Amino acid sequence: MSRRGNCWDNAVAESFFSSLKKERIRKRIYKTRDLARADIFDYIEVFYNRARRHSHLGGVSPEAFEQASS
Question: What distance, in Å, lies between the first and last C-alpha atoms of the chain?
């Protein structure tokens, strides 16, 4: 999947992890691994995928975009 020396191959993953770190993880200290796991799960399933607006989708959330196209 990723070619050696080509940064664009991994751009989607890099963008996601950058957002995760800036919006959720930075400046937080988790007491247990389970608390960290639960917080990251909440970010991915509740905030990032469903509610967050995406410029690529015309400024609407993926959920709203999917409902509009149905």
Answer: 31
Reported as a single tens digit per residue, the pLDDT across 13-58 is 888 888 899 989 998 999 999 999 999 999 888 887 666 777 777 8
Residues 35, 39, 44, 46: is their CA dihedral positive or negative? positive
Return d(Cα 20, Cα 33) in angstroms, integer. 16
Specify the 3-state DSSP secondary structure of 63: helix
- Containing domain of residue 49, as a range? 32-69
Q: Check: CB of residue 53 under 8 Å from CB of residue 63.
A: no
Domains: count for the chain: 1
